[in-house]
Amino acid sequence: MSEELDNRIRVFRAEHRLSQGGLADAIGVTRKTINTIEVGRFVPSTLIALRIARHFGVPVEAIFSLKD
Amino acid sequence: MKQPPAPTKAQQGEAFLERTALGVLLLSLAYGCAVAGGLSHGRLALTFGWLQRALNIGVIGVLLPSFWRYFRRGPQGCGHPLDGFVVDVFRRAALVTFCANFLLLLALELVTRKGFIALTPPQLVQGLLCASLGTFGLAFLRMARVPEEDDAAGLEPLP
Questions:
Q1: C-alpha to C-alpha distances, B53 to B27, B34, B37, B123, nearest whole angstrom
Q2: Cα A61 vs. chain centroid, distance in angstroms?
Q3: What is the enclosing helix (H) or strand (E) of B95?
Q4: Which of A47, A5, A56 is nearest to B10 (CA)?
Q5: How much of chain A exceeds pLDDT 70, in percent?
Q6: What is the mean pLDDT of residues B128-149?
Q7: Residue B117 and residue B127: Cα distance in Å, rounded?
């Protein structure tokens, strides 16, 4: 995981019954990008974070948060 | 027979970057063969020459489809990889290459000042290109490794 950024994408995907590939197609990135964000290897740009949040209909803070 | 789904623009863009990195790695090997061929004699030099030609053809084979699409359909034909993991890896590999090149040039500056290198200027340039392109290709391939299988956690029923 990223040392500073936590994310709840997997939880939201499970709630929306969405695969990594499905989410990737929906927001215009590739599955690799979603996979690496989930495991914390890649810190997404503001644009990608906002697209993910918009797709799930929640504020970006509901998905991404700083680790304490 | 069921056709595989057409790649999205993001997938096309990533494939373009991946092919470019692979082409760069093959090009570095071709430069390496050119240097090795220049330093060797007889059959060995001939073998390196053939290997270099084969690698050059490989470079064209890897890069031509991407650039053909680019020139025929414009940047949109190659997707638009403006953002995402592979784009980030591409940038990081470029940064690694810059740092490695800088250190190599510093070391070479010291070595050549003492006259330890018996390479001709063209061989030296080819060697530097080999190191530079090879560093980029290897750094990219190493950093871009990601498990292939899709995590379909979202498709499992919630408890």
A1: 11, 9, 12, 17
A2: 11
A3: helix B85-114
A4: A47
A5: 96
A6: 90
A7: 12
User: Could you tell me the two tokens for A62?
Assistant: 């509901």
The phi, psi pair for B93, rounded to 5°, reads -65, -35
Q: Which of A21, A16, A19, A4 is nearest to A53 (CA)?
A: A16
Residues of B in contact with A15 (CB under 8 A): 154, 158
* Cα gap B149→A66, rounded to integer Å: 28
Question: Given CA atoms B70, B74, B79, B82 in this order, what sign does their dihedral have?
Answer: positive
Give the chain B residue whose CA is nearest to the CA of A36: B85
pLDDT, mean over chain B: 85
* pLDDT per position as a tens digit, B96-132: 999 999 999 999 888 887 777 777 888 889 999 999 9
N- to C-terminal Cα separation, chain A? 14
- Rounded to whole angstroms, the Cα distance separating B97 from B91 reads 10
The CA distance from A28 to the nearest CA of chain B, in Å, is 6
Are the C-beta atoms of A23 and A9 separated by less than 8 Å?
Answer: yes
The reply to whether residue A10 touches residue B151, judged by beta carbons under 8 angstroms, is yes
Q: Which of A54-58, B91-95, B150-154 has the lowest mean pLDDT?
A: B150-154
Tokens, residue B56: 């050059």
Report the alpha-carbon distance of residue B114 to residue A27 in Å, rounded. Answer: 57
Give the span between the Cα atoms of B13 and B75, in whole angstroms: 9
So what's the pLDDT on residue B25?
A: 95
